[in-house]
Design goal:
The chain is globular. 42% of the residues lie in helices and 13% in strands. The relative contact order is 0.14. Strands 3-2-1-4-5-7-6 form a seven-stranded mixed β-sheet, with helices on both faces. The protein has 319 residues and is of the alpha/beta class. Helix 4 links the parallel strand 2 and strand 3. It has 14 helices and seven strands.
């Protein structure tokens, strides 16, 4: 069966991302990094709008690289697919012989393809093996973590990455249940969480397992560690005038992005100094005012944009 990648994935806040990147791309032969290629929606729009642009599309998921490459084959060598984790920006550019780029886009989180394909194990809505690896060729699965981590470690993950109030009781139940039978499917895991998390009568705030699925996915893929390592590399890779646009989908990601951008937008000259010292000026200018959210029109077209939080910044001349 042939997959229609355009139907599988609607790029989140596409027009706003293009608008924010645009000032940095008004140069001859601009280069953009799409750090989270997915099915290539954002990249396709960039290549279409800028006939002389090159986009480097990074993704750790071999299936995403395969599908996006098929979708974008008409752009020939202006699209460079790279199978890697996006915290390898510096080494990827070094390998390609590229010293700087004019735009960088990060669309964080899990892709539509990963959510919609049951065998990936990302979704509580479909009974499947608990995998959750963005690259299914390497690393431990979610089922492996549920089988090997002790109660304290599990509770810490659920609390830290999922902000789950019932982290302790859920972890306790997992340890008890796995002693009887391995927890390998989303159906088993859903039942454990549903049995522990109380539901207020007449109220429904989403599936009770939503937060622990997020927590497991983040842990399996080390998503926050990757983001923390990638942001300084992205800022360093930008040419003067180039722009970094980041879309995150929960407060933990957004907090890391906000902190990194604000740090780069602040002079490191001690506040008591009367003049700014050479080499200590801000590296970035923040473009967005606070965090931007999807418009009502965007939400109507693409409900998955509801949790998106967008921030952008521009590279400054060194002082």
């Amino acid at each position: 069966m042939t997959l229609n990648t355009a139907e599988l994935h609607r790029p989140v806040m596409l027009q706003r991302c293009l608008e924010l990147l645009r000032p940095g791309l008004q140069v001859e032969n601009p280069i953009v990094i799409d750090c989270t290629l997915g099915l290539g929606g954002h990249t396709e729009a960039l290549l279409s709008e800028y006939p002389t642009a090159t986009v480097i599309g990074i993704d750790r998921d071999p299936k995403a690289i395969e599908l996006a490459s098929e979708r974008l084959k008409g752009f020939s060598d202006r699209f460079i697919p790279v199978l890697a984790v996006y915290d390898e920006i510096a080494s990827i550019l070094d390998r390609l012989g590229i010293s700087e780029v004019n735009g960088i886009l990060m669309d964080l989180g899990v892709s539509s393809m990963q959510l919609d394909f049951a065998d990936r194990g990302f979704s509580y809505a479909q009974d499947a093996q608990l995998d959750m690896r963005m690259d299914q060729t390497t690393g431990k699965t979610a089922a492996d973590l549920l089988a090997s981590m002790d109660e304290t470690e599990l509770a810490k993950i659920f609390r830290r990455y999922g902000e789950e109030r019932f982290a302790g009781p859920i972890a306790r139940r997992i340890v008890r249940e796995r002693a009887i039978t391995p927890i390998s499917t989303s159906g088993q895991f859903n039942k454990i969480v549903s049995d522990v998390v109380p539901q207020a009568p007449g109220k429904f705030n989403g599936h009770p397992a939503k937060r622990v699925y997020q927590a497991l996915r983040i842990a399996v893929n080390d998503e926050l560690g990757v983001l923390e390592d990638a942001l300084p590399q992205a800022i360093d890779a930008l040419a003067v005038g180039g722009r970094l646009v980041v879309m995150s989908y929960h407060s933990l990601e957004d907090g890391i992005v906000k902190e990194a951008l604000q740090a780069a937008a602040t002079s490191s000259t001690p506040i008591e100094m009367p003049v700014e010292l050479p080499g200590t000026g801000a590296t970035l200018k923040i473009i967005t005012r606070g965090v931007e959210r999807a418009s009502e029109m965007e939400l109507d077209k693409n409900p998955r944009s509801a949790s998106a939080r967008l921030r952008a910044a521009q590279k400054l001349e060194k002082n």
